[in-house]
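A common beginner's mistake is to predict each chain separately and then try to dock the pieces by hand. The better habit, illustrated here, is to supply every component at once so that their relative placement is modeled jointly.
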Amino acid sequence: GAVVSQHPSRVICKSGTSVKIECRSLDFQATTMFWYRQFPKQSLMLMATSNEGSKATYEQGVEKDKFLINHASLTLSTLTVTSAHPEDSSFYICSAGGRRLNTEAFFGQGTRLTVV
Amino acid sequence: KNEVEQSPQNLTAQEGEFITINCSYSVGISALHWLQQHPGGGIVSLFMLSSGKKKHGRLIATINIQEKHSSLHITASHPRDSAVYICALQRAGGGADGLTFGKGTHLIIQP
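With all components supplied together, the output reads:
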């Protein structure tokens, strides 16, 4: 099946710094990718929909200036957590597929972010 | 009330047992996904269903659109099946294209 690669898998950063997470579709073109966040013992929550060549669509309550999404090509979407705070520590995961491809959803490996 | 409810939240069983995980939802959907999340966090898609039943190896997924209910079954369970199983909805119509997730069922299969 299709492969989505996410990098890095784990990152520790200091408060106030920015962290970039990459999500690549390796064997298909993804005009749309999704970014999710999962806090411990909670369900995954959609943060934003990343659209190639246009602005991302953010879910209610997600700050677009804090979580910058860039989808400059059909195979790469990036999520940058700007001015990170300890409360941003979470598991971030991207996916592609689903309705837009009329296929199952394919997930990246996820990124565990710890802000100290 | 959550749009998607899974039961049970936690399940511990012995190797070889037949496992059933249930998912009920309250919104219109175009498809329902069953996902497997491993302890490290990685997620694997098991099934995408819009009607009927699908089978892959020891895994079987069914959905009843009228009753807004889906089940995931594992036959001849094995310790390597231990994971969190998540039901996720692909909503019908407009709105977010991303999935809406249940809280997951934490399954432990003991040898």
